[in-house]
Amino acid sequence: MNPPPRQARSVARLAAVQALYQMETAGAGVEAVIREFGEHRFDRDLDGLRLAQADEAFFGELVRGVVADQAPIDKAVSRRLAKDWRLERIDATARAILRAGAYELMRRADVPAEVAINEYVEIAKSFFDGPEAGFVNAALDGVARDARGA
Questions:
Q1: Which of helix, strand or coil describes residue 57?
Q2: In the chain, is it the N or the C terminus that has fewer CB atoms within a 10 Å radius of its CB?
Q3: ∠ CA 29-56-78 to the nearest 5 degrees?
Q4: Which CATH architecture best describes the domain 6-148?
Q5: 47 near 127, Cβ under 8 Å?
Q6: What is the pTM of this model?
Q7: How far is CA 107 from CA 28, 100, 133, 147, in A?
């Protein structure tokens, strides 16, 4: 069986960040959010244009994995924040990006660190105009060094 195309994983990563944000801000449960994305958001048309297909299995793994491993993920990210910054103080979207990226860096050795970091930096750029993409890059690079000795 061939692996899903790279674009399908990129879509899954973006959707995972959106799902994590939704879970945090709306208090929705992990399985309910995964089901909602599968039933209502993936493989749909938007204004007559077909959206890119997502790797739904990868999406589910990311969301479930971040939730299951949130304590060690948050600890790993927090170690890479400036001295007086707490993870709770960071914007919820940026927090979701950092958590998803850290999950991949810590638990998915099959994904090269450079690929994971680049993907989440690009996601940050799609949400923010300011320095957040650089912040995400620096934090995830630090998490990669800690997790992989890279």
A1: helix
A2: N
A3: 55
A4: Orthogonal Bundle (1.10)
A5: no
A6: 0.89
A7: 24, 10, 22, 9
> 3-state DSSP call for residue 108?
coil
pLDDT tens profile 55-73: 999 999 999 999 999 999 9
Nearest Cα residue to 16 out of 70, 50, 65, 59 = 59
Taking the C-alpha atoms of residue 34 and residue 37, their distance in angstroms, rounded to an integer, is 5
What's the pLDDT tens digit per position in 30-44?
999 999 888 877 766
Q: Give the Cβ contact number of residue 7 at 10 Å.
A: 12
User: Maximum Cα–Cα distance for the chain, whole Å?
Assistant: 48
Structure tokens at 101: 């990226």
3-state secondary structure of 46: strand
**Residue ranges in the chain assigned as alpha helix (H):** 6-26, 30-36, 56-68, 70-79, 92-107, 113-127, 132-148
Provide the residue ranges of all domains of the chain, joining segments of one domain with +.
6-148
